[in-house]
Amino acid sequence: MTEDTAVDTRPTKIMYVAEATAHGGRDGFVTSQDGQIQLRVAMPPELGGDGNGTNPEQLFAAGYSSCFHNALILVGNRAGYDLTGSTVAAKVGIGPNRHRGYGLAVALSVSLPVLDPEVAARLVDAAHEVCPYSNATRGNIDVTILLG
Fold it and tell me: Which top-rank group of organisms is this from (predicted)?
């Protein structure tokens, strides 16, 4: 898809704004302006840290999995399916890229135990089009979706 024919996924109206502040980068803490988040962040041992706190990749995995799951429930409900018992797990990997920086890769594992595989795949594809995290990452990072 060329830039001229790319689907514009930007919001037409902002309905909610989340605010968070980092103090000390990857070895500090993060807070949200409403006080719901007050977390210590630390580099994981694999990246040379002590691992005594959460990290941005875990927070991203939590956000993406919950957002994708909500999109899945939404498209499932619209299609007349009850997705009670479904889950979405996210793995977020980080590593060096070819441009002297770092990049991310995501694997989403979707469980839809009560649906036949064809219907489940159709709903997962639809959720991937609806989910704001999927729209934000599309074309920027590798996202693999595993249906099991």
Answer: Bacteria
Residue 146 backbone phi and psi in degrees, to 5: -105, 130
Quote the CA–CA distance of 99 and 114 in Å, as a whole number: 44
The string of pLDDT tens digits covering residues 64-110 is 999 999 999 999 999 999 999 999 999 999 999 999 999 999 999 99
pTM for this prediction: 0.92
User: Among 66, 54, 52, 53, which Cα is nearest to 18's?
Assistant: 66
Q: Take residue 68 and report the two structure tokens written for it.
A: 């994708």
Of 72, 80, 48, 59, whose CA–CA distance to 128 is shortest? 72
Closest to 126 in 3D by CA, of 51, 67, 74: 74
